[in-house]
Write a structure and sequence with these properties.
By secondary structure, the protein is of the alpha/beta class. 26% of the residues lie in helices and 23% in strands. The chain has 6 helices and 11 strands. β2, α2 and β3 (107-111) form a beta-alpha-beta unit. α2 (89-101) packs across α4.
Length: 269
């Protein structure tokens, strides 16, 4: 007989980046100079990991952990590597592994992220999957839990306008419906995407069946040159979890934290 299942979805750890999810052994020391850029970064690393570890303890035990892409940051070519804790992608996999192992999940599923971060010729998320003893690693995955079907992929398009940030999710829901009608994909109740580092949800009904399509929060905090210079979007730091009971009833919880160390202040003159 089916039993309740708990699934956690984490994404965009960007392990190896200075504000990626960073366990204590890899965190920078806090400089004594308050003006040093590392001062803020080191505090962000600590605050983010403390919150993450606390939530892990609260939510365990977990049946399924889905790691939805961009587990590592890669070589950081666009910034000349200056934002990295380490540019060694094997070591980045070790950093990411710490964030996976703390869950003690019965099953780990890894969905591959963007080649810029995780390797084009080399498939570093498959390397990580081997170290994590993942049940599956793939580009586009579907899970059926007590009759509820989840559709996972890392990449999704983004919108620069707040009121347009659910359009890509709705588009992917419709594409899944068309693929399912054609007989090539399972019909999904939940479309799960990541990549954009903000969490937005669209939902509705098709007949008597409710659908949800969303982007997850990210586990990379604010602190990239690209974000500071080129982006306007808010960053949602966190992850999500689902409980699916034996009858297929679903409870979804989003865990998003306000990272105080990231707060900007006006220069007073």
């Amino acid at each position: 007989m089916a039993k309740r299942k708990r699934m956690v979805v984490i994404a965009d750890q960007h392990a190896g980046h200075r504000v990626g999810l960073t366990p204590p052994d890899f965190q920078w020391k806090i400089p004594t100079s308050a003006e040093h850029i590392w001062q803020k970064v080191a505090r962000i690393q600590r605050e983010c990991w403390r919150w993450y570890a606390k939530k892990v303890r609260e939510i365990r035990p977990v049946d399924i952990l889905v790691v939805n892409g961009d587990c590592i940051d890669g070589r950081g070519e666009k910034s000349g590597g200056v934002e990295l804790i380490t540019g060694d992608r094997s070591e980045q996999c070790d950093i990411a592994l710490r964030g996976i192992e703390v869950w003690g999940a019965k099953h780990v599923i890894i969905v591959r992220g963007t080649p810029y971060h995780t390797g084009d010729k080399e498939d570093w998320e498959s390397v990580l999957a081997g170290r994590a003893r993942a049940k599956k690693v793939g580009d586009h995955e579907w899970l059926d839990m007590n009759g509820v079907v989840f559709d996972f992929k890392h990449y999704i398009g983004r919108s620069s306008i707040p009121h347009g940030q659910t359009t890509p999710q709705t588009r992917d829901w419709l594409w899944n419906a068309l693929w399912a009608d054609a007989g090539y994909q399972p019909r999904a109740d939940w479309i799960i995407r990541s990549h954009v580092h903000y969490s937005r949800e669209a939902n509705g009904w098709r007949g008597d069946r409710e659908w949800h399509a969303l982007t997850t929060p990210a586990l990379q905090a604010m602190g990239t040159r690209f974000g500071a210079r080129m982006c306007s979007n808010l960053v949602d730091y966190g992850f999500m979890h689902w409980d699916i009971d034996a009858k297929g009833e679903v409870e979804c919880q989003k865990h998003v934290e306000f990272i105080r160390s990231q707060k900007a202040y006006a220069l007073k003159l």
